[in-house]
Amino acid sequence: MAVSAENKRRLVTAALVGPAAVWLFTFLVLPFTAVVIFAFGERAPEGGYQPAFTLAQFANLGARSAAFTNTLTLAPIGALACLLIAYPVAYYLAIKADQKYRMFLISLIVIPFWTSMLVRTYAWMYLLGARGIPHLFELAGIDDVRLLNTPGAVLLGIVYGYLPLMILPIYVSLEKLDRRLLDASADLGATPLSTFFGVTLPLSLPGVMTGVALVTILLLGEYLIPQLLGGGKVFFIGNALVDLFLQSRNWPFGSAIAVTLVVVVVAVLLVAMRIAWRVSGSRQVDLI
């Protein structure tokens, strides 16, 4: 029996989408469903999960308020710091840099990703530790300089680790910019500053929002940088989750925090998409 063209299209679509759908359902939907179920349970006497239906875990979120405060403070600040550094770099690469050197300069931004984040963070531990930068201050006669295990060290690690993820989306947005618009603005008598704020910045905002959303969402679940550069004194939500699941074995409370984190991430993404859509008007905006 012949298969109609419409059925063929459906079969092809199912063949293409099916494996990804099964993968996402198995490794995303099912685990998150289990986490949601755990969040409404109770901690067993010996640790782990005990079936129940209670909101006590969510009511107890204030017990980890420091982790939420640090995360919701340092993550946006870190994303903003990345943006302030990344935009001039991306602007230079897309607008000012010579075409024959552009790919080389972009490679210099990407190369740090070839090294493990753990190794790079350990390098910063040495630089910020007693035998690193503070030792140079001591040689200059400035004693008791403490850089490691502080919010500043965590913020520095955040900017260092996530800066390329901010540069690349902005660069792509600026690289697609129609240069004739810049020339037209100049021909109409606009100053370079007016052209930047009136043409360049608005047209690059979708890339800016993509970078901000990407970096902020990843930072909300960050564990390694606060653990190593914060020395256990600057807790993020990721650190709290590791403690609750692996050490305290309070799976329901950890699940409640994880569910709350997912809600925050979704809220950040929706806000970023709405802002980017309003800024871009009818143009398509992809944040992820």
Automatic annotation (TrEMBL):
This is Spermidine/putrescine transport system permease protein. It is found in: Cell membrane. CDD domains: TM_PBP2 (cd06261). One of its GO terms (biological process) is transmembrane transport. Coiled coil: none annotated. It holds the Pfam family BPD_transp_1. Keywords: Cell membrane, Membrane, Transmembrane, Transmembrane helix, Transport. Belongs to the binding-protein-dependent transport system permease family. CysTW subfamily. It is a multi-pass membrane protein. The keyword NADP does not apply. The chain crosses the membrane at residues 12-40, 74-93, 105-127, 153-174, 195-220, 251-273. Residues 68-274 form the ABC transmembrane type-1 domain. One of its GO terms (cellular component) is plasma membrane.
